[in-house]
User: What shape does this take?
Amino acid sequence: MDEQLMAVVDLVNKKKRQRRWWSKPHIRHNYLTGYGGYQLLFHQFKLKDEEAFINVTRMDVHTFNYTYDLIKPSLIITSFRPSLPPQLQFSMTLHYLAYAVSLNTLANMFNIGYSTVAECIPEVCSVICLKLGPLFMRFPTKNEFQAIAIAFYLDLDISNCVGALDGRHCPISKPPNSGSLFYNYKKFFSIVNMAICDSKKRFIWANIGYYGSMNDAGVLANSDLGIALCENEIELPPPLSLPGTETRCPHYFIGDGIFPLKNYLMKPFMRNENLTIPQRIYNFRISHARRIIECAFGQLTQQWKIHEKALQWELESTEKIIMSTLILNNLLLDMKYNCVGNRWNNCPIEVGNNIQGGNVFQEFAVRNSLMNYFVSPAGAVHYQWEKI
Assistant: This one.
C-alpha cells in the first residue's frame, strides 16, 4: 500500500508545471532600469506636476511624504533578492484604492508580477491600519467627545450629539460555502461597514466584516461598541443643559429609524400622517444632522473607488482594505483642517461633575426633551419651518 501511495505522489509531482524562470525576464530587467509607470510617471508627477500626482495618489506631495515617512520602516523587506521599493508599494496601493483597477493592470503598469501585486496590496493596507489607525482613527476620550458635541452644535445646530451612526454595504464576491449569509436586501453579496463620524466627516469608529444579510441594528448590537454602550462602559461626557435652557440632556449618537431608541442613541419618530408639528421638526433636525454620515460615505466612495467594486480578496484582506480607506480619509481631512495630532483640541471644553448613568435618563424622555427644545425660541432655527 505504501509503495502504491508513493507511486501516486511521484506521478503527481511529475505532472506539476515546471517553472521556466523565477521571475519573468522583463520583470528581472526592472531591477536595473526602474519599474515602468513608477519610474516614468510617478516620479515625474511628484517632481514636476503636483496636480497629476494628486490625481494618481489622492494626496499632494507634502501629505504623501508625511504619510510615507510614518509607514516606511514597516514596508522595508529584508530578502536575498531585490525587493520592491517601499515608495513603489505605497504609491501602487494608493492608486489601486483610488481607482479600483485590476491587479493585471497594476502589474502591467508597474512592470511587476501579478502575484507580487496580489501580495503587496493587503500587506500595505495592513501596515496602514497598524501604523496610521492609532493616529488618525482612535476612539475619542470623554473630553474629545465633548469637543465633538460642540462642533456638531456649531456646524449642524444640534446639541449634545457626539456622532452620526450608519452602516454601508461593501460589495464583495461570494465567499465559498457561505450560502446566503453575505446576500443583502439590495440583492448583492456584501459585508457591512458600520461607522460613526463627527461633524467634519471624520470617522471616529468603524466595524467592518459582519454578514451582508444582517441589518444595521443587528450589526450594532453585536459590535464591540454596541455591547459596551449597553453595559454603560463607554465614558461619554456628563449630561449638560441644552443651550439657553435649564433642561439637562445626556450626550447621544444619532441614527436612522432602523436603530433602537436608547438614552445614548436618538432616532426619528416613525413617519406617518399623524405626526405633530413638533415631531416633524424633531425628525427634520435629527435627519439634517444625521446626513453627515451619508455625506462621509459618499465622499469616501468618490475618493476611493475601491468601494464601488465587488472585492475578490479573502475576507480578512477585504476588511483591511476597507479600513485603510477610512483611515486615509481621516488623514486627508486632518491635513485639510490643519489639525494633525491636534484634532478636536481647538474647541473649548466644558466638563460637568455628573457621570452619565445608564438608566438616569429614559430614552423617551430624552427624545421628548429634544423635541420640545427644537420648537422653543432657544433651540429653533429659521430654516426648519420651511421643511415640515
In short: The mean pLDDT is 85. The beta strands are 161-171, 190-197, 203-211, 240-241, 248-249, 252-254, 265-266. The first helix runs from residue 2 to 15.
